[in-house]
Amino acid sequence: xxxxxxxxxxxxxxxxxxxxxxxxxxxxxxxxxxxxxxxxxxxxxxxxxxxxxxxxxxxxxxxxxxxxxxxxxxxxxxxxxxx
Length: 83
Ligand SMILES: [Zn+2]
Hints:
Bound molecules: zinc ion
Number of helices: 1
Strand order of the largest sheet: 2-1-3
Order of helices and strands: EEEH
Distance between the termini: 71 Å
Number of strands: 3
């Protein structure tokens, strides 16, 4: 069954809908039927892309926190030596 991604022209919400037969899709946020169908990506692809970018962001945060701690430690060490 096709899953389409829509953008609501009324409130701007973006969502995926499973469309069957004569069903008229409506916005889950405001129930408007003024929708624009977007180029749909396979769900698996968009999911794994999101996971990957989240993992990358977490790794980056961790690295930055470590670098900050290291910088702080070096600063304190040099500070102690001079003081
Ligand atoms: Zn809407």
